Amino acid sequence: MTAKRDRLLTIIARREQWQDDLALVRRLHRDVVAAEDILSGATLEKEGQSVTNATVRERYAAWCAHVRARLTNETASETEQRCLKHFLHVTTNIEPRLFHCYDVAGLPRTNHDMEGFIRSVKTRYRRISGRKNWNRYLIRYGARVAFYEARARTGELGAMAETLRQVPAYRWRRARAAQTARQQEQLKHHRVRRRRDAFLADLEARWAALETGT
Hints:
By secondary structure, the chain is mainly α. 79% of the residues lie in helices and 0% in strands. The relative contact order is 0.04.
């Protein structure tokens, strides 16, 4: 019983030691949730107001002003002030691009869906090839990977094939040349990162050949 009591007292002591940190985390979490509710339009919808670029910007500016006022509060700890200042700094930097989605129909507020789609394409290729790195796959097939995956998920591959049959030959050759140029540029970046010495040696050899030719 003594050992259990001592262990319980130790746990309680640690909890009391972390109480201030836990309270800080809870306050900062509430701030993040409040900001998200404003930017998602949920706050304005609850109040029966229209969700537009102007209304969201105005409400978010008021919330930021309230947070800045907290920074002057002597009760705010150094850690809390640092976290709030960083949050305001980041959101202020992206503010010019933060409030354009509400007045444009179909424009997503975040790129989470796109990132999830790209991650799922990577996961699918890794399962097919057994490789972790999908750069070779991307360099070989380029943007067509995304088009194919998107159409495959919506069951529109047949319609896409029919549309491609109607593409004039000159447009097909032009698109293929553009794709080849993008692939070469991606391949060049890959060689610079992975095989820099060999890439530079090849580049110097080509320069020397040009100088000899002139």
